[in-house]
Amino acid sequence: MKSKLNFIIDAVLFLLMGFLTGIGLLIKYVLLPGSERWIKYGQNVDLSYLGFDRHEWGKIHLIVALILIVFLVLHIILHWKMIVCLYKKIISNKGLRIFLALCFVLLTIYLVVFPFLIQPNVQEMESGKDRFQSDQFADTLKNENVIVKDKVERHNENAHHHINPSIEVKGYMTIQEVSDKYQISCDRIKEELNIPISTSNTSKLGHLRKQYNFKMSDLELVIVQSKN
Question: What phi, psi does 203 have (nearest 5°)?
């Protein structure tokens, strides 16, 4: 029975490690961050897979990692006697064994909790589009026409977007989130943006924008009008 349990746990560990690696590669090379999206697609598109964007896949990555740790602990428990036996054979000095084991435990604890002990470096960052137009990228691009076209697009976007600085709508937000945040009914949002009423309130704006051809500034205008 114990052998079967060990086999199952080892198989699950292998699958979890594979899934963890796959999600990491998905976030790194497929669901690109803003600046890299501009470089690859030439515009600020919304990228998702199975309805989840890179941030949501990041949460899934964390959950899978926690599950992996649980199964790893079970694996250690089931092999504890063997581990202790090998440890004693490798290091015969009892005092040294205790010291190294204590160091190992403290290091493991630190590696788990260190994100809660540090302070990140905070600095103002340009938008993805501005980073796309940085001097470094312009030098490697060597295409003046593309740069000029992008500057024109940015000017037009700045002219029509951010109607009210206090209003901010993003592609990763859902209709329901906008409704809750700005106290405007989901049905009115759909009606004003020509989105079918039957559309789910949990649909993301980025997906809907491409499907029904509206701009975020259009939604901002709807929000402003609802407050008047």
Answer: -70, 140
Q: Which amino acid is at 88?
A: K
Angle CA 43–48–50, to nearest 5: 155
Mean pLDDT to the nearest integer, 126-139: 51
Tally the C-alpha atoms within 13 A of residue 97's C-alpha that lie toward its C-beta.
12
Average pLDDT estimate for 135-151: 49
- The reported pLDDT for the residue numbered 158 is 47
* Burial class of residue 74 (count of CB atoms within 10 Å of its CB; 0-12, 13-18, 19+): middle
**77 φψ region: left (φ > 0), alpha (ψ -120 to 50), beta (else):** alpha
How far is the C-alpha of 91 from the C-alpha of 96, rounded, in Å? 7
How far apart CA 227 and CA 17 sit, in angstroms, is 50
Query: Are residues 97 and 87 in contact, defined by beta-carbon separation less than 8 angstroms?
Result: yes
| Average pLDDT score over the chain | 81
Of 182, 193, 187, 185, the residue nearest 215 (C-alpha): 193
